[in-house]
Design goal:
The chain is an alpha+beta fold and 373 residues long. The protein has eleven helices and twelve strands. It folds into two domains: 232 residues, no CATH class; 94 residues, PDZ domain (Pdz3 Domain), CATH 2.30.42. It is 51% helix and 20% strand. β9 and β10 form a beta hairpin. The longest helix has 30 residues.
Length: 373
Amino acid sequence: MAEFMELSDIIPFLIVLTILVYVHEWGHYWVAVKSGVRVEVFSIGFGPELFGWYNKAGTRWKISAIPLGGYVKMFGQSDSEADDDVGEDLTDEEKGVSFAHKSLAKRVAIVAAGPFANFIFAIVVFFLLAWVVGTPVPQAGVGQVMLDSPADQAGVLSGDTIVAINDEEITLFSDLQRIVREHPETSIDLYIQRGGENVTVSVRPRGIVGDDGVSYGQLGVSPDPEQVHYERSGFFEAAGFGVTRTVGMITGILQYLGDMISGNRGTEELGGPLRIAQISGDMAEGGIISLIVFMAALSVNLGLINLFPIPMLDGGHLVMYAAEFVRGKPLGAKAQEYGFGFGLILLTLIFVFVTWNDLEHFGVIEFFKNLIG
């Protein structure tokens, strides 16, 4: 059975989840307040309240016992916003601060603000990392060496650092790739630093014919993830990196889901809270930067998932608001009730499915099968 979660996994997971939940709910909260809605509760976690306080606006900020989510409760907000359930017995003053009595545009903005706060958070994190810390650039270090590749046959080892090729000094893995590509089926000399010693090997890159019909050299090595240096970007370049990295992640997730729906990819890669907790622990062991990058990536996932058109999620509410825009009035109470019931069942099934995937990933299912069998 694969190594299961440890306490060292759970603590980083809870820290990451708490931050992302706060960001998501703060998006709802901030736009609601700016829209004139009275926010009654801002909770991190579900269940019984552990402790809390009131701010000047009368909002109860609290930490609850089950740290697996959170919510913002607004005055005049209910599961159903049908015509017969908007609280017409409210005073004019109460209607002025009621979520249900705000315009459709304001309700859409409040609901959409949570997921978009997650996207903005990711953009800001990637921007700051690129501007302050820098983006990792692989040095000319050797990670994995493919079996029976030219590098393997020449005696190149994982962990080697290539400092020169023929008479040209190199520092980046991209330099190594460029020179090797230019020498298909041509012997070249690699000058290597290995454990404090200088080693020279001759290697003949394998000629590979590309789609354009041109032959290029292939050595058969991957970059060493431990041999990198960080290049800081300028302010505007870093800002562009934050946007493109976040958009790229969103595109990648949607492409994966499309491939999964079309049957081109399996569902075994889908992970739930157990696997996220394990990855959080692994990232924490890799250092604070690794954990922050993972948190930004998870923020993108959280924002996108909440935009899925499933009742009970933000995306489900947005679909209902789209129907309201077309009809000129909210959906009926029965339609909304059935929709939220379907959403609850669907989310439960998804949670059970990804948790099953997690248990299979850790070998728990196989362990009990063998135990019973």
